[in-house]
Amino acid sequence: MKIPFLSFDSMHSAIRAEMVTAFENFYDSYWYVLGDRLVQFEKAYSGFNQIKHTVGISNGLDAIYLALKSLEIQAGDEVIMPSNTFIATVLAVSYTGATPVFVEPDLETYLLDPTKLEAAITSQTKAIIPVHLYGQACQMVEIGAIASRFGLKVIEDNAQAHGALYQGRMTGTFGEINATSFYPGKNLGALGDAGAITTQDDSLAAKSKMLRNYGSQQKYTHEVIGHNMRMDELQAAFLSVKLNYLDEWTAKRQEIATRYREQLASCDLIVLPAVHPDATHVYHLFVIRTERRDELQVFLQDKGIGTLIHYPIPPHLQKAYEHLGYKKGDFPIAEELAQTSLSLPIWPGMDFDQIDFISNQIKSFFS
Ligand SMILES: *Cc1c(COP(=O)(O)O)cnc(C)c1O
C-alpha cells in the first residue's frame, strides 16, 4: 500500500466544480487585486473565527510581521516565543529588528509552557507569540494573565490551528492581533500563498490594512512606509469555497487521530500527542515520538508510507540565528523534540484501512 504524507485528492476532487466556477467568475471579473472577493472572504473568515476583523495578507510570515509592525515592535524590543516553533515565527520578529527570545515548550503538549514565561521576561520584553503548534490550542488564559500582569502584547501564531478552542474560545481571538496562514498544506489552504491577520481592535485592523497596501488608506496618499503584502483576489475566491468545508475536514482529521490512538495505544515505545483538558486539537499534524525516530522513518518509507519531521533543527541551532549565540544544550526540550518527533500521514479523506496499515507497520517495527 502506498500512502503519501499528504494528499489533496479527496478534498479537491469533491470541490472541483465549485473551484472551477470560482476561478471563472474571478477571471471574468477583470478585477484581480483588493476587490470584492477579498472583502467577502475576510467577512466569511471573521464569521468562522468569531472575530471582528480579518485582514487578508500575502502569506503567514508576512501576517506575523505586519501584526508585530502594527503594534510598533521594533529594534531594542524582545519578543518571546516557543523554542520549538517553525522558523517563520522567528523570521517575522527579526524583520522588525526586535530580538527573538525562546521559552521551552511543555514536553507533553509541545506548546509554550506558561509556567516558564515569567523567567524570560525582561524590561525589554514587549510581546509574546504563542504558537498553536500541530493544531492544538495553547493555554491562552494562563498566557494572557501573565501578559497583562507585565503589560505585554499577545500575538497568536494560528497558522496550524484554524478552529481550535481553549476553554471554548477559538484560537486567533485571544491576542491583541493575531496571524494565520493559508499555505496549501494548512488545514485551510489556498492554491498558493495566502495568510491573514485577525483582531478585535478597529485601529489595529486599519493599521494592518494600511501596512499591507503601501502605507496608504487613500490612493496615492502614503501615511507610513508600507509594503505590498495583500492577499490575491484569486486566493480569496478559492479560500471562500474551501472555508465552507473546513468544519467537515477538521472532524475528519479528528476521527483519523482517534483511530491512530486506538491502533497505537498498545505500542508503549512511542509517545502519542497529549491534549490539554481545556484545549481542543484540530490535528494539522499527528506527531508521535520515539527514540528510534530515524530508523522508524526509513522503515516506513520502505513500506511506502510517507512521513515528515516537524522540525529537525530548532531555531536556536539554525545557522541563520548563529548571531544570537546559542549552543546545543541551551533548549533541551526543543532539541529532544527535534530528535524524536515524527509526523504521520493525516488528511481528510484518508480511510481506516490506511491508518490501520500504518499502525500495524509501526507495531511490527517495534516487535
Ligand atoms: C506555515 C506557518 C507559518 C508561515 O506561514 P506561510 O504562509 O508559509 O508564510 C508560520 N508559523 C507557523 C507555525 C506555520 O506553520
From TrEMBL:
Superkingdom of origin organism: Bacteria
Catalytic site positions: K186 (proton acceptor)
Swiss-Prot/TrEMBL GO biological process terms: polysaccharide biosynthetic process
Modified residues (N6-(pyridoxal phosphate)lysine): K186
Keyword Methyltransferase: no
Pfam family, one: DegT_DnrJ_EryC1
Keyword Hydrolase recorded: no
Keywords: Pyridoxal phosphate
Family note: Belongs to the DegT/DnrJ/EryC1 family.
Record protein name field: dTDP-4-amino-4,6-dideoxygalactose transaminase
Natural source organism: Algoriphagus antarcticus
